[in-house]
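On to my pick:
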Amino acid sequence: MGNKKLVLIDGNSIAYRAFFALPLLNNDKGIHTNAVYGFTMMLMKIMEEEKPTHMLVAFDAGKTTFRHQTFKEYKGGRQKTPPELSEQFPFIRELLDAYGITRYELENYEADDIIGTLSLIAEQNNYDVKVISGDKDLTQLTSPKTTVGITRKGITDIEEYTPEHVQEKYGLVPEQIIDMKGLMGDASDNIPGVPGVGEKTAIKLLKEFSTLENLFSSIDQVSGAKLKEKLEGNKEQAFMSKQLATIERKAPVNIDVEATEYEGFTREKVVALFKELGFTSLLDKLGEATDTEVQQELEEISYEIPSEITDDLFTDHSYFYVELLDDNYHYAEIIGFGIANENGRFFLPTESAIQSSIFKNWAEDETKKKTVYDAKRSEVSLRKHDIHLKGVEFDILVASYIINPSDNLEDLAAIAGKYNVRNIQSDESFYGKGAKRKVPEGDALAGHLVRKAMVMSQLQETLDDELHRNEQFELFAELEMPLSLILADMESTGIKVERERLEAMGRELNERLIEIEEKICELAGEKFNINSTKQLGVILFEKLGLPPFKKTKTGYSTSADVLEKLAGKHEIIEHILLYRQLGKLQSTYIEGLLKFIDPKTQKVHTRFQQTLTSTGRLSSIDPNLQNIPIRLEEGRRIRQAFVPSEPGWAIFAADYSQIELRVLAHISKDEKLIQAFRDDLDIHTKTAMEVFHVSDDEVTSNMRRHAKAVNFGIVYGISDYGLSQSLGITRKEAGSFIDRYLNSYPGVKEYMDEIVHMAKQSGYVTTLLHRRRYLPEITSRNFNLRSFAERTAMNTPIQGSAADIIKKAMIDMDEALKDKNLKTRLLLQVHDELIFEAPEEEVEILKELVPLVMENAIELSVPLKVDYSYGPTWFDAK
C-alpha cells in the first residue's frame, strides 16, 4: 500500500468561498443551498483527485480566540456573516457526517491552528498532507511533505503551493510568510502590520534581512529615511502582527491523526441529504456501484387473485391502491390494483378490471367509499379508461402532507415507516430505479399491491386522529380533498398549444439569434463561437480589454453576474446578454414545450404537485407552466401559443392583486397597512412615502422600486444581504432601509416578534386555515439554524395563507360554474392567478362572477382585489 495521505480542509473558508462564488440557490423548502452545493462539489473533486486515506474538516469554534488577548480588534473589520450563509453551516456538518469525514473545532482556536497542529503531527508520522483553504496564511505550512491548495476564483480552481512555488511566487521560504504578514499586515483579518509597507516592500526587506528579528536588529542598514522611520515607529505593531499571523502548531488538539481515517460514505445518508437539499444532478453522480440496499424480510400475507370480478369483492368501504410504474401518470399505464376490505384482500389485474362493468360501477359509485393513496393520480389514470373515480373519502398522501408538509415522503412505504407500520417495501427497492426499473414477474406484484392496500388500512385511523387533534380535519376534508379532484380535472382537460405557432416562434427566434450573433462578431472584429466560454473570454478580456471579474481553471468566467457587472462598458455586452436570454427561451421553453404537446389532444397536460411545498403552494411540472418568463417580450409572446380548445372561445385570466401583502396587513393588524389597502392606495408608493418621508408627488420611480423590493422582501423573509443583492446597494444601506420600513409599520415589527415567540413555544406556525409548518430548529442553540427558523416563522403564515386563499377560490369557482351551469373550464393556476377557457358568450358573466367569488373566498380585515383580462390567447389575457 502507498503512503498515507491526510487531507485537511479549512471548513469556514471553503464555505465562504462557495457561498460568494455561486448564486443564491434554494431548495423547495426555501433553504439556501449554494454554499452546501459548492462545498459538496469540492469534496467530490478531492475524493476523485487526491484519493485520501485520512480526512478532516476544521471549523472555527467561535468569534473569540487566544489572538484576541493580544489584539482585541483582531478580525474586527469583518462584516457579519449573511444569514443566507449561516443557515447552511448545519447542513455542511450534516454532509460531512453522511460522508463519514471527521470534523473538528476547538474552543479559543481557529481552523488554521487545528490544521497547523495536525499537519505537523502527520508529517512527523510520514504522512503526505494536502491542505485546502482560501486563506493564503496557510501557505506558511508548506513543506516537502505538505502541499497547500489555495482556492482562487470560485472553489474548484486551486493554486497549489509547494516550497518551490512559494519561492517562485514570492522569492521567500514558507516560514517567511509570517514575517511578510508582520510587515504588510492583512486587511481581511484586521492585522495592522506597518502602515505604508505593502507586499513588494515586505518581500524586498525579507530578501535582504530574512526575518523580522534580523530586520529590526539591523535597522540602520535599511535604505530610505521614510521607510526606516515607518519601521521604527511601528516595531511593536510589526511583531504583534507577526504573532497574530503565526499559525499555532501545538494547539491542544485532542484528536489523533489515525482517527481521521476515511472509510467511505454511507450511501443512504448521502442520498437522503441530497434529496432533502434538492441536489438532483449530484444524485446522478453517485452512480449505482455503491448501492448496498437489501430487500427487507417481509411477513407472509394471504390474498386472492379472483378469476372473475364479482360484486362480492366490494363493500361499503375499501382500501384501494392504483399502481403505475412511471411518475408521469398522464402517459403511464396502470399495472394493477390492490384492494383490502372486510371481504378480504384482492389483487386485480389491469385488463380484467378495466373491462369489467362491475368494477367500473363500483369505482364510480359515490356511496361506495374508498381510501386511496394520491386521489389525483388515481383519478387521472383511471379516466384514460373512461372510469371516473368517485366516493373517495380519505387520501393517505394528502393527509400525511397536511400533518407535516416538511416530511417530503416519497412513497407509501416512507409514510408507513414514519408511523412504525412495517411489512412493505419501498417502490425503489421493489421495482429498482432509473433504467433498471421494471415490473417483477409472477405473484410478486400482486403481493406488493395487496400490502399497499393493507398498509393504508393500518394508517388511516392514526392519520385521521392526528388531523383532528391538530384542528386540521377541515383543511383536509373541505380544502385539499376537493381540490385534488379539481386538479385532476384540470390536468385531464389540459390546455391547447398551437404547435405551428410555437414552431414559427422558434424559427423567428433562430433568425434573431443569427442576427445577434453576426452583430456580436462584428463588434468583436472577428468570427468566433459565442457559446464557447473560452473563446468569448479571450474576446472580452484580451481583445476588447474589459476588466475580468472572475477567472477559472480553464480561463475567464463569462457567467451572467460577470456580464451584468460589465453592462455599459461596451456595446457588445447587451447583445451577449440578449443572445443568452433568447437562447434559453428557445431551448427550455419553445423546444421544451413542443416535447410535451400530446399528439392525440394537441394539449399540454401539466401535473400539479399538491403535496410538495412546505408552504402549501402548488407547483407544476412536465411542463412547468408556472415558470414561463414574462420579463422579456419574446418570453411573454410564448403565451400566444396557448389558446382555447374550441372555436368561438376565449382565454380568461384573473389574478389577486398583492395578495401576500394584504395577508400581511390582516395578520399583523398594522393600522397604516390596513388603511392603505382600504383606501385602495398603491402600496409601494405608500411605503416609499413612509420610508423616505416624502409626499406622494415626490416619490421617484427608484424610490418606488426600492419600496417594492422591501415590501416583498419582508414577505419572503429577506435579510440585509438578500436585499442588497436584489437592489445593488450596500448591506448597510439595505439594513437601514429594512429598519426604516419596520419603524414605519410598527404592527409588522410586532407581528414578527410575536410569531417567533409563539413558534418557540409551540414548535410550529400556522396559516389562517390551520396549515402547519413545524420548525424544530426555532429553539436550537445553533445561531444559524435558529435564525433560518425565525425567518421561516415570519414568512410561512403569509405565503401559506395566500396559498390557502387561492385554493379555496378554486373550489368556490368550481362550485359557482356548476351552479350556473356554465361551460367555462378552469385550466391553470399560476401562483396568484387562475386561467380559464370560456365560450365568448360567457365572458360577460365571468367579468362579474370571477372577481365576486375570488374576492369573497375568505374574509380579511382588508379587501381582496382581483384583476381580470381576456382574449383569444393567454398572451392577450394580460
Remarks:
- The two ends are 69 Å apart (CA to CA).
- Residues 256 and 714 are 48 Å apart (CA to CA).
- The longest helix spans residues 783-819.
- The chain has four domains: 5-171+248-260, 311-494, 497-604+613-643, 661-801.
